[in-house]
Write a structure and sequence with these properties.
Layout: E1 2-3, E2 10-14, H1 20-32, E3 37-41, H2 48-58, E4 65-70, H3 76-82, E5 88-92, H4 101-108, E6 117-118, H5 124-136, H6 140-169
Parallel strand pairs: 2-3, 2-4, 4-5, 5-6
Antiparallel strand pairs: 1-3
Helix pairs in contact: 1-5, 5-6
The chain binds 5-O-phosphono-beta-D-ribofuranose.
Length: 170
C-alpha cells in the first residue's frame, strides 16, 4: 500500500501490483491537483475479505471516491461498487491477450442498480480527473485548480500549434 497521508480523499485500488504502472498515473494526476490519495493492491479474487474490510472502512476514513483498476477477469470495480455507495470509477488495465478489451467489457457491463463509471483502457489520468470533478462539486479551491489545469492544457496545444505554423512558414 502506498499512502500519501492520513487524510486521503480518493482511494485507488488495483487487482495486482502488476497494475501499478498504469494506476500510478492516477496518483500523479491527483498529486498535481493536490488531492491526497492512497494506492492499494487488493485482488477481489485472491483477498476478498481484505477488500471488503478496505471498502467497509473507506467512507469513515474520509475517502469520497474510489478508483479501481483491474485486468482480464476484471471484477474488482464491480465488487467494490456492490459494497459501497461511494462513487466507483473503473480503469480497464491493458492485457497481453486482448489489449484490455477483455478488461473493458468486464468492467463496463455492470447490472442495473450497481453503477461503475468506466474510463478508457489504461485511462487512469481521466479516472483521477473525474474523481477530482466529483470532489470539486463541494470544494471551490479544487474547482479553481481544475479550471487552471484545463486552461494550461488548452494553452499548451495552442502554443504547439502556433510554433508548428511558424516552422511551416520558414
Ligand atoms: C487482475 O489480473 C489484475 O488486476 C491484473 O491486471 C491481472 C494480472 O494479475 P497478476 O497475475 O499480474 O498478479 O486481477
Amino acid at each position: 500500500m502506498a499512502d500519501q497521508g492520513t487524510s486521503a480523499r480518493v482511494g485507488i485500488v488495483c487487482g495486482s501490483r502488476s497494475d501499478f504502472p498504469v494506476m500510478e498515473k492516477a496518483v500523479e494526476m491527483l498529486g498535481r491537483l493536490e488531492i491526497p490519495c492512497e494506492l492499494h493492491a487488493i485482488s477481489a479474487h485472491r483477498a476478498p475479505d481484505l477488500l471488503f474490510r478496505f471498502v467497509g472502512g473507506a467512507g469513515e476514513r474520509g475517502i469520497c471516491v474510489i478508483i479501481a483498476g483491474a485486468g482480464g477477469a476484471a471484477h474488482l470495480p464491480g465488487v467494490i461498487a456492490a459494497k459501497t455507495i461511494l462513487p466507483v470509477i473503473g480503469v480497464p488495465i491493458p492485457t497481453q491477450v486482448n489489449g484490455g478489451l477483455d478488461s473493458l467489457l468486464s468492467i463496463v457491463q455492470m447490472p442495473k442498480g450497481i453503477p461503475v463509471a468506466t474510463v478508457a483502457i489504461g485511462g487512469a489520468e481521466n479516472a483521477a480527473l473525474l474523481a477530482a470533478e466529483i470532489l470539486a462539486l463541494a470544494d471551490p479551491a479544487l474547482r479553481g485548480r481544475l479550471l487552471a489545469f484545463r486552461d494550461a492544457q488548452t494553452r499548451s496545444i495552442e502554443e504547439d500549434e502556433s510554433n508548428a505554423n511558424l516552422r511551416d512558414d520558414s
